[in-house]
Each structure stands twice: as structure tokens, then as C-alpha cells.
């Protein structure tokens, strides 16, 4: 019998391991795929070793020693030492320093990529704990809830489809719970029937759920539509902003202005901390700096030696300061206006609109504010005394931050030849210059703005050539690349789904051809690099979008700019205007070069007027979208041949049949799914449901001793009918071979039942604690007893 029990235990552990693997391995595979991590099969291999260790090592301290050794080998396999660190004593400190650095970066919320060492360490520890709980304590639910929480987070903050994973997770979790409730000490036939019925029900439920995904699509859309209003209401009441402001700060980088741009990529979280107020009614893109050197992973941000201290007030176009008489005359000009920018915290750099003319600090005395300009990046840094107000004034040309006249940009199409000719004329005595082609002169003149890394994959330039094939006007070429990235290329904007650039890959190439998901840095860098590959001078710019217009009776209207408005975009050189900003990021609209009369900027709609400094905010209704067939042709453009022979009545009948089918599907699938879930729950937890009420009635002293004894005996009679004339004691002796560890409880119950039936028991007398304990113990052991079917038990 012991050999049979060992075989049954082995079978149960193997089946548990298989179901556990089916539950977690797809989730682990999804996690590794989303984060672009290598070592997937290594993780799966150590996952299997952990299962084997937890299944067959019963002593906890032995399991801990084995897992410690496996963890060392696991980390060593994923992060092998370099040839310079061949010794273990050199590799261990390196791993410790790497893990500690990743942990500090995580706490500072400044991650630019997935902390692989921390993630793998956490996964291994989690696998060990969950496997130990499963095999040592028969607890599959911790693993289920861990996977469930991950899927729910994934569904909430990304656009990943997690429903198929969720269905498989729930189905395998039901199977593991059912398996943990089966007593392998029962007869093999009973165990087989129970397993067959339970798993048949669960697998039918899983299959039904998968095939019902399409049928439940309308129901899901209905739920999403109804919930949108509540989500909007919570957003308007500041619920999501409250969550963000009260977050612990752990995790990846948050949106905001930073100077480190050498390596771009990785997910971002929104930070709504306010940065400054701009007292104007016209939306502007606020530039902070630009970069020129693309390194294949980002834009070089090393400090330059081109910084110089500026006089205050500082005039941009004079590269210095105007005289007092010139400054008095300037505000009298028709198109000159002034913006005041007030910083919320210490002012350390300047943000400025396109077309600005002069900078001044009205509230500061001479020497209290020092401004330095990096000529290479147009980056202004500020140092000031403690008590100096953090605000400044910018005078700008109102005619600049409006939609450009496209014809003015198209006129510049011949600028390359004119620049080359002027260059040759200025250096007429230099024979080498006279021999240079126009493209060579442009490449020399705009060396920084045309720079590309030697390792840039050729397919990036090939794509740019394909997009602009047949176009000759430089303005049209720029717009074509912008439109491709913004609308036609099929790229998706997301802050959270962004993959880090794999090793030995190019940032732009990976975005354009592999991930195709990114945020402003991906789109702006891609446009800059593709235009450079076409010979068009371009640079990459960082700054802020306009912000949110705040209007109230207590103060002048202003735009509130916070860290979530941090943005990047490319600038393209046109001689008539200099460096002109463009906007390739979906859902963003630059007021300077936006082609439409109405632009949507972070959920707000602005209407631009070229002739005034007044901005109207209008509620615009989107045009209704035409429903399209999968092939892309709208229903209104269907050819007559497609509907030939179909009369109006036939169309009406077909439509009615289709509607009826959809209605029946909408009713049938949820109802059938509900029935399947109910049956599965009953199949898995049937004894818990049946025995819950008797336990409750006994524990609350609602039943008398006689009523409780009769109820328990009726339950036991369902599995083994008593023989004629058999006493309670004799009947309970029949169960002792099947419950060798509960013989004392069976004897106690026999005496209680005899006293209840034959003794002087007061029906109003409450049960004692000992009587309640015996009765509940009889209920607890009941699910594990076999169905004897009135046959005499065999001896062990």
C-alpha cells in the first residue's frame, strides 16, 4: 500500500508541476518579451529546477541551501564575467556594485532601461517562494494572485491584450486548486473520476472562453464606452493626478527637462509638477536647447567650451544689448509683444518662444542675475541670488509664432546653389574652394547639422528615399517625412510600451523597423536622422509644449507649463526664417508650423488667428468617421457590382437576420460563459459549498446535538450506507481504515451520537466547545473520505 501511495503522490506532484508551469510560463514569456530581455530559456530552465527542488525536497533548510546554489549559477549564467574579471572574487563585487547602482537608480525614479540584474534576481526569488508554498503547503493561490496583479497592471497602463493570458491563468489556477483538494488516499477509481470530471469542466470552460472572445467584443465595447464617462469624471476631479502626486517615486524616469540625452529610450511616467507660468494668451512651443551630434543611441550632451556670459538686458538679433533709446522705441512697433515667465522653483535655465527678441530681468538689480549661453546648443543657464524673484521678461515678434506662409518656405528651394555661389565668390582666390561641388560646400557649412554615425543602418536612408521619391521641393520633402511618421507609417505613441534599444542596435533603426512604438524622442530623432540622410540640415530640440491655459478673474490669463509638457521636436534650416520647428509626434501640433487652423495640444483645442494676439478656445466636434470594411474601402464607395441582385427587401431581411444573430450571440455567450464558470466553481469547491452551512449552524449554536448528529450521519450515509441493525459505533468503525489519523474523533462522535439519540439531552441546551470541535472535525474530514458505496472496506 505504501508503494501505491508513493506512486499516487508522485503522480500528484508531477501533475501539479505541469499545471503550475502552464499557469506561469506564458506570463514569464510575456514579461521577457515586453521588456526585450535575453536569457528567456535560461530562466525557464531554472524555473524547472526550482519546481523539482520544491517538489522533492521536504526540509526547508535543505531547499534554501539548494536554491542559494541555483541562484548563484543562475546569475553567473546570465551575467558571465568578462575576460578581465575571470576570477570569482572580482566578479562578485562587480555584480554587487551593479545591483546596488540599479537599486539606487530605481529609488531615484531615474531609470532609462529595465534593471535586468534586479529584475532577474526578483524573479528567481519569487519563483522559489511560490514553488515552496505550492508543494509544501498546497497553496497555488499566491502564484495566481502574483500573475493576476501583473496582468492587470499591464492591461491598465499599456495597450497589450491580456485576456487570453487571463483565461489560461484562471483555468490553470482552478485546476491547481481542485488538485490540492483531492485526497490521494482515496481509491484510485474515485480519484480518477474526480480528476476527469473536474478537468473536463475546466478545459471546456477555457475553450469556451477563447472562442467567445469575438462574440463578447460588443459587450466589452459597451463596458468600455460606459466606463469612459466615469474615468473622465475621476480625471476631472483630480483622482489620477492625486495618485501620481502621492506615488512613492520608485521606478522609471519621469517626464521633465533633463540635459542628459546621450542614451534615449525606456519607458516614462508622467510628472505633473508645475515648472513655470507664461503670461500670454497665445500658445507657444518653449525651446530650451538643441543637440547636433547623434551617436546611434541618443544625442551627445557633453559640456562645451563655447559658454559665455551675457549682458542683461540681452538682445538676441544684435547678439548683445540695445541702447536705452532703442529699447524705448521697440514697444512702439506694431508686432512687438512681451511675455513674463514666472518659475515655480529656483530658476536655473531659460525657456523661450520662437521669434523672441530680448531678455530682461526687471525685478533684479545689476549683478544679482548671471546668464550664460552655450552657443553650440542655444542653452541659457541662470545663476541668481537667493531673494531674487524667479521670473523674467521676453520681448518677441508676434508675427513669428503663427502658421508660416508655405510659399515663403518654398521660395528657399534654391538656397543651396545661392549659398555655394556666394561662398565661392567670397573665396575666389582659393582654387580648392572653386573646385568644390555645391553639396560639398553645404556639407562643410552644416557639418554638425548633417552629421550621422558611421554605423547607421542603410535601410534608414532607404526608407527616407522611398518616402520622398518623386519630390523635388525641399519643403515638400520635409513635410512628407513628417507626415509619414505622424500619420502614414503606422507608428504608435506611448510612454510606457517603449522598448529600450538592444545592444549593438541603432535607436532610430530599432524604432522605425522593430518596435514601432515610442514617444516624442523616438519620432523627433527619427525625423532628424532621416532628413540628414537626405542632405537636409536638421537639429534635435528639447523644450515644452504650450501648457494649459488658465483664465480666472483674480489674475491675468496664463499658460501653466508642467513637467508633463516636456517635449522634443526637430528643427529644419530655411534661410528665410532660420531654424524652423516641425512636429512628427502623433497627437501633437506645433503652433509655429501647424498646417491646420485648429490644433489639439494635450487635450485642449486652440484656434489660431494670424492677425492678432488673441487666441480663441473652441469646442470642436470631430467629424463622424466613415465605417470601413477590412479592405479599407468605405461603405459609401462600394461598387454597384458588389451589391448586384440584392433587392432592398433582401437587404432589410439580411440586416434583420444579422441583428437577430448579434442579439442572440450577445445573450448566448455571456449566459453560457456564466453557466460554465458556475459549474466549474461548483465542481472545484463543491464540498466547501456543501459543508459551509452545517459548519456555520454548529458554530453559531443554532443546531442541537441531536440535529447536528443526524445531519452529519446523513452526509456520511451518502458515501457509505449502513448495514441493517448496525449501531453508530459499528458504523464509524467502517470508516476507520480510511481515516487512520482520525480514529479518536470517530469514537468521540459515536459517543455523542449515542447520547443524542438515547440519552436525556435537553434540546435547548447549547453545545459545549468540545462537542462543537468534534462535530466540525467530522465535517472537515468528510471531503477526503472515499465513496465506499456500501461495500465493506478493505484492510490496509
UniProtKB/TrEMBL annotation:
It holds the Pfam family Transglut_core. The chain crosses the membrane at residues 12-31, 37-56, 61-79, 114-134, 141-157, 163-179, 191-211, 667-693. Residues 608-657 are annotated as: Disordered. Keywords: Membrane, Transmembrane, Transmembrane helix. It comes from the Bacteria. SMART domains: TGc. Residues 512-586 form the Transglutaminase-like domain. InterPro entries: Bact_TGase-like, Papain-like_cys_pep_sf, Transglutaminase-like. Residues 608-651 have a biased composition (Acidic residues). The keyword Membrane applies. This is Transglutaminase. It comes from Alkalibacterium putridalgicola.
Amino acid at each position: 500500500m505504501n508503494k501505491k501511495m508513493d506512486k499516487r503522490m508522485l503522480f500528484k506532484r508531477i501533475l501539479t508541476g505541469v499545471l503550475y508551469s502552464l499557469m506561469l510560463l506564458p506570463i514569464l514569456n510575456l514579461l521577457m518579451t515586453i521588456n526585450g530581455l535575453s536569457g528567456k530559456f535560461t530562466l525557464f530552465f531554472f524555473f524547472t529546477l526550482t519546481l523539482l527542488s520544491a517538489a522533492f525536497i521536504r526540509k526547508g533548510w535543505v531547499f534554501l541551501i539548494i536554491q542559494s546554489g541555483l541562484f548563484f549559477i543562475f546569475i553567473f549564467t546570465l551575467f558571465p564575467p568578462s575576460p578581465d574579471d575571470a576570477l570569482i572574487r572580482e566578479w562578485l563585487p562587480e555584480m554587487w556594485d551593479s545591483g546596488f547602482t540599479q537599486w539606487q537608480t530605481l529609488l531615484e525614479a531615474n531609470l532609462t532601461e529595465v534593471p535586468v540584474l534586479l529584475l532577474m534576481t526578483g524573479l528567481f526569488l519569487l519563483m522559489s517562494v511560490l514553488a515552496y508554498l505550492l508543494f509544501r503547503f498546497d497553496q497555488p493561490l499566491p502564484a495566481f494572485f502574483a500573475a493576476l496583479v501583473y496582468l492587470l497592471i499591464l492591461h491598465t497602463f499599456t495597450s497589450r491584450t491580456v485576456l487570453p493570458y487571463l483565461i489560461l491563468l484562471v483555468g490553470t489556477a482552478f485546476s491547481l486548486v481542485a488538485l490540492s483538494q483531492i485526497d490521494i488516499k482515496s481509491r484510485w477509481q474515485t480519484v480518477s473520476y474526480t480528476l476527469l470530471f473536474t478537468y473536463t469542466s475546466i478545459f471546456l470552460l477555457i475553450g469556451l472562453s477563447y472562442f467567445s472572445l469575438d462574440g463578447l467584443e460588443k459587450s466589452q465595447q459597451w463596458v468600455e464606452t460606459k466606463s469612459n464617462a466615469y474615468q473622465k469624471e475621476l480625471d476631472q476631479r483630480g483622482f489620477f493626478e492625486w495618485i501620481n502626486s502621492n506615488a512613492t517615486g520608485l521606478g522609471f524616469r519621469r517626464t521633465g527637462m533633463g540635459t542628459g540625452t546621450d542614451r534615449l529610450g525606456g519607458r516614462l511616467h508622467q510628472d505633473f509638477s508645475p515648472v513655470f507660468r507664461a503670461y500670454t494668451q497665445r500658445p507657444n512651443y518653449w525651446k530650451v536647447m538643441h543637440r547636433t551630434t547623434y551617436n546611434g543611441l541618443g544625442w551627445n550632451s557633453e559640456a562645451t567650451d563655447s559658454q559665455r556670459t551675457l549682458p542683461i538686458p540681452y538682445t538676441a538679433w544684435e547678439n548683445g544689448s540695445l541702447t536705452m533709446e532703442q529699447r524705448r522705441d521697440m514697444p512702439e512697433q506694431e508686432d512687438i509683444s512681451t511675455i513674463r515667465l514666472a518659475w515655480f522653483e529656483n530658476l536655473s535655465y531659460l525657456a523661450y518662444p520662437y521669434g523672441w527678441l530680448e531678455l530682461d530681468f526687471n525685478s533684479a538689480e545689476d549683478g544679482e542675475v548671471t546668464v550664460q549661453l552655450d552657443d553650440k546648443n542655444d542653452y541659457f543657464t541662470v545663476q541668481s541670488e537667493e531673494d531674487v524673484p524667479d521670473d523674467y521678461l521676453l520681448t518677441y515678434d508676434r508675427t513669428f509664432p503663427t502658421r508660416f506662409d508655405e510659399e515663403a518656405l518654398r521660395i528657399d528651394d534654391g538656397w543651396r546653389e545661392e549659398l555655394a555661389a556666394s561662398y565661392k565668390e567670397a573665396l575666389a582666390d582659393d582654387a580648392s574652394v572653386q573646385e568644390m561641388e555645391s553639396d560639398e560646400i553645404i556639407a562643410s557649412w552644416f557639418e554638425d547639422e548633417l552629421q550621422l554615425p558611421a554605423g547607421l543602418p542603410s535601410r534608414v536612408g532607404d526608407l527616407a528615399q522611398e518616402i520622398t521619391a518623386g519630390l523635388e521641393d525641399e519643403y515638400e520633402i520635409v513635410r512628407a517625412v513628417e507626415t509619414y511618421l505622424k500619420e502614414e507609417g503606422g507608428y504608435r505613441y506611448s510612454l510606457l510600451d517603449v522598448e529600450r534599444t538592444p545592444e549593438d542596435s541603432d535607436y532610430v533603426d530599432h524604432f522605425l523597423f522593430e518596435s514601432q512604438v515610442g514617444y516624442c524622442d523616438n519620432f523627433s530623432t527619427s525625423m532628424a536622422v532621416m532628413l540628414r540622410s537626405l542632405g537636409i540640415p536638421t537639429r534635435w530640440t528639447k523644450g515644452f509644449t504650450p501648457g494649459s491655459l488658465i483664465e480666472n478673474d483674480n489674475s491675468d490669463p496664463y499658460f501653466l507649463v508642467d513637467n508633463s509638457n516636456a517635449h522634443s521636436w526637430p528643427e529644419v534650416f530655411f534661410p528665410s526664417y532660420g531654424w524652423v520647428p516641425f512636429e512628427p509626434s502623433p497627437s501633437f501640433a506645433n503652433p509655429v508650423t501647424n498646417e491646420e487652423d485648429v490644433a489639439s495640444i494635450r487635450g485642449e483645442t486652440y484656434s489660431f488667428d494670424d492677425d492678432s494676439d488673441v487666441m480663441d478656445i473652441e469646442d470642436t466636434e470631430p467629424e463622424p468617421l466613415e465605417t470601413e470594411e477590412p479592405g479599407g474601402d468605405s461603405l459609401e464607395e462600394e461598387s454597384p457590382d458588389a451589391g448586384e441582385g440584392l433587392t432592398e427587401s433582401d437587404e432589410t431581411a439580411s440586416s434583420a437576420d444579422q441583428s437577430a444573430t448579434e442579439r442572440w450571440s450577445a445573450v448566448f455567450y455571456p449566459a453560457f460563459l456564466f453557466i460554465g464558470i458556475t459549474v466549474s466553481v461548483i465542481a472545484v469547491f463543491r464540498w466547501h459549498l456543501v459543508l459551509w452551512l452545517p459548519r456555520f449552524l454548529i458554530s453559531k449554536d443554532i443546531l442541537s446535538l441531536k440535529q447536528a448528529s443526524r445531519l452529519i450521519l446523513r452526509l456520511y450515509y451518502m458515501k457509505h450506507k449502513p448495514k441493517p441493525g448496525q449501531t453508530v459505533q459499528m458504523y464509524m468503525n467502517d470508516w476507520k481504515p480510511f481515516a487512520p489519523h482520525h480514529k479518536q474523533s470517530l469514537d468521540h462522535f459515536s459517543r455523542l451520537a449515542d447520547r443524542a439519540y438515547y440519552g436525556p439531552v435537553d434540546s435547548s441546551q447549547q453545545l459545549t466547545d468540545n462537542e462543537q470541535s468534534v462535530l466540525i472535525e467530522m465535517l472537515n474530514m468528510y471531503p477526503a473520505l472515499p465513496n465506499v458505496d456500501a461495500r465493506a472496506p478493505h484492510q490496509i
